[in-house]
């Protein structure tokens, strides 16, 4: 399904490793590590429905919704067993919420505080156009990580400021010590429309060169196809792997192949392979309030190469093409609840995974 011209898509990229001496907070967008729980939330680590192993934390996204009084965090977990790769049943996505008053009640018990988010709830997810962006009001930062894109780049000045806070209450997750942990990285955010100014020349050019050699296509020529005749000629061509959906996927992300996350609340997913005919019917309604679920974000292939073990004495990995996350349209939440709500996701494998590493 193509992204509508009216949709705003936000792109997440890796923005440097998280210092082991500091702890991230629930309002930090990050890769790996352990989840950082909202103050009132308790979590028992989820297990794989296929092999019963504990699931490792993959990403954390702080994403309050427009006109909502709730802080809102989404955590995605996956099984690192090779036999479970590429299977939706080996993943889980959990949504957590709490009110500002709940956080204030717990502040006295924190040794390190995260600066209170001052952005209006209406600035978030109004058609997802302010996810992680500075718009006069932003999350204050104790420290901004080193910009992996480069200090002189125009886009880097727009990337999200990140804050530091206490970590997970591990007493609420007694199984966590036995679960493999991925290396922690910050995720910074930009609008897809800003990608014309994004340059990470060496890595980007290498990815594009490998892709063009493999598929026998020129991304530059594809992007210049503006006339109907040229577009029709391109669409009639067949990539070497024979998958037009994958070719379209590569074309869409060619300006930033290292994007690890695409966010578009109530937008359209970017499929890496042709979805089932009944794809829309595969997404179940919310099991708590019965409302429809909408697409919120997806994990991208470039994330795979970042998912290494935080323990230098062990090796873990994960393979997938893209992971599509759908959440309750109403983002329903029962007052006083302390347990995350499970949402829906499904995984598409990558036909050319090695070209993202």
Automatic annotation (TrEMBL):
GO terms for biological process: apoptotic process; apoptotic process involved in blood vessel morphogenesis. It comes from Danio rerio (Zebrafish). This is Programmed cell death protein 2-like. Coiled coil: none annotated. InterPro entries: PDCD2-like_regulator (IPR052815), PDCD2_C (IPR007320). One of its GO terms (cellular component) is cytoplasm. Residues 243-348 form the Programmed cell death protein 2 C-terminal domain.
């Amino acid at each position: 399904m193509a992204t509508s011209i009216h949709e705003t898509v936000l792109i997440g990229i890796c923005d440097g490793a998280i210092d082991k001496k500091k702890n991230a907070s629930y309002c930090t967008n990050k890769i790996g590590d352990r989840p950082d729980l909202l103050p009132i939330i308790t979590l028992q680590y989820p297990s794989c429905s296929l092999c019963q192993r504990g699931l490792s934390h993959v990403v954390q996204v702080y994403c309050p919704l427009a006109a909502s009084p709730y802080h809102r965090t989404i955590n995605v977990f996956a099984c690192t067993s090779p036999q479970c790769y590429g299977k939706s049943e080996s993943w889980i996505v959990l949504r957590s919420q709490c009110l500002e008053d709940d956080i204030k009640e717990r502040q006295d018990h924190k040794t390190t505080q995260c600066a209170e988010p001052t952005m209006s709830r209406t600035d978030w997810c109004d058609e997802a156009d302010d996810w992680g962006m500075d718009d006069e009001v932003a999350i204050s930062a104790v420290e901004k990580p080193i910009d992996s894109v480069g200090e002189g780049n125009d886009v880097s000045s727009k990337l999200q400021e990140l804050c530091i806070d206490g970590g997970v209450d591990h007493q609420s997750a007694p199984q966590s010590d036995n679960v493999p942990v991925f290396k922690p990285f910050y995720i910074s955010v930009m609008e897809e429309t800003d990608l014309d100014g994004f340059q990470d020349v060496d890595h980007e050019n290498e990815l594009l060169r490998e892709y063009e050699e493999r598929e026998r296509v020129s991304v530059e020529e594809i992007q210049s196809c503006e006339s109907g005749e040229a577009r029709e000629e391109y669409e009639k061509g067949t990539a070497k792997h024979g998958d037009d959906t994958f070719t379209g996927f590569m074309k869409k992300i060619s300006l930033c192949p290292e994007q690890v996350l695409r966010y578009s609340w109530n937008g359209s997913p970017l499929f890496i392979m042709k979805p089932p005919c009944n794809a829309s019917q595969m997404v179940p309604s919310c099991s708590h309030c019965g409302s429809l679920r909408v697409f919120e974000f997806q994990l991208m292939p470039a994330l795979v190469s970042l998912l290494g073990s935080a323990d230098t004495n062990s090796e873990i990995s994960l393979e997938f093409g893209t992971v599509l996350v759908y959440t309750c349209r109403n983002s329903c939440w029962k007052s006083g609840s302390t347990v995350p709500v499970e949402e829906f996701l499904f995984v598409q494998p990558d036909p050319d995974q090695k070209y993202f590493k």
